[in-house]
Every structure is written in C-alpha cells, then in structure tokens.
Design a protein that fits this description.
By secondary structure, the chain is α+β, with helices and mostly antiparallel strands. 17% of the residues lie in helices and 38% in strands. It contains two helices and seven strands. Helix 1 (3-17) crosses helix 2 (83-94). The model has no long low-confidence stretch (mean pLDDT 88).
C-alpha cells in the first residue's frame, strides 16, 4: 500500500466526519505553518512503518504496520471547540475506518505536543496494517536434468 494513498484516505475521512475542521496534509515546512481555520486545524502526516520478518517462501511477504500522525491545532483546550473535543472526534472518526488493502485503523496513542502563540498542539498516532510484497522477484535458476532413466524392475530413478 502506498503512503500517499493511505494519507489521502485519512484526510478525506476526517473532512467527511469532522466538517467544521480544516484538514490537510502536514506542510512541507512546519515552521511556516499558519492556521487556516479559526476553530480547528487537523494536519496528517506519515510517521513510520514497522515490518515483520519475511515468511519462509521464495518471495518476500511481510506484515507492514503503518503509523500516521494527526496533529490537532486549536485555540482552546476545553469546551465545545477545545482540543479535548477534537481529540475525541478524530479518535471516533478513525477507529475502525478501513481502506482497501489495509486492516481497520486504530489509535495507538495521543499526546500533548506544545502550547505556542495561543495555540494548543496535540497529536494522535493512528495505525493500520497491510502487506509488503516483493515486486521484482528474481527467479532462481532451476537445476537442469540432462537424462532421466527408469529401472523397470526396482522402480528407481537412475
């Protein structure tokens, strides 16, 4: 599963489930981020993946656990338009959300990031699992048999 595909699906899900929020991908330069919405801004970014050991087959197949970070940026901590309200709204919107090729999403943790310039920053880490499958498998050459003989009386191969 491609990172951009999952990130876009998460953003679209949050836009649909939390219509009063401004939702976008995390900016390329976070230092220049300016909130676009007076109430709440939700920023999505890929965080990391962990991979299982490959199975004992000729082709590499691994479980891939993908984590995405949703950063919540708001002016208030509590109340109807506060951070706690949006932490719960994001958690409810994401928990159980499934895109094709992935398992249902779940929240692995949430945390306080900072308070700066009158804004509260909190984060939810969300996780889904998919498969990492070798795309360009190189075939090992098979042994070449030059002759095969069969002994009729003993049923042995020579």
């Amino acid at each position: 599963m491609l990172i951009n595909t999952v990130e876009t699906a998460i953003i679209e899900r949050l836009k649909a489930k939390i219509p009063d929020a401004y939702v976008e991908a995390f900016p390329d330069n976070p230092a220049l981020f300016v909130p676009k919405h007076p109430k709440v801004n939700l920023l999505c970014r890929y965080a990391d993946s962990t991979y299982s050991e490959p199975g004992p087959t000729d082709i590499i197949v691994q479980e891939r656990k993908m984590a995405f970070d949703i950063t919540i940026v708001v002016k208030n901590l509590r109340g109807k338009e506060g951070c706690y309200t949006y932490l719960d709204a994001v958690r409810q919107a994401i928990t159980g959300f499934k895109i094709p090729g992935c398992t249902k999403m779940y929240v692995s943790k949430d945390r306080y990031i900072k308070n700066a310039d009158g804004l509260w920053f909190y984060s939810l880490m969300i996780v889904t699992k998919t498969r990492n499958i070798e795309v360009n498998a190189e075939q090992e050459p098979l042994p070449i048999f030059k002759t095969i003989g069969f002994n009729q009386h003993t049923s042995e191969v020579n």
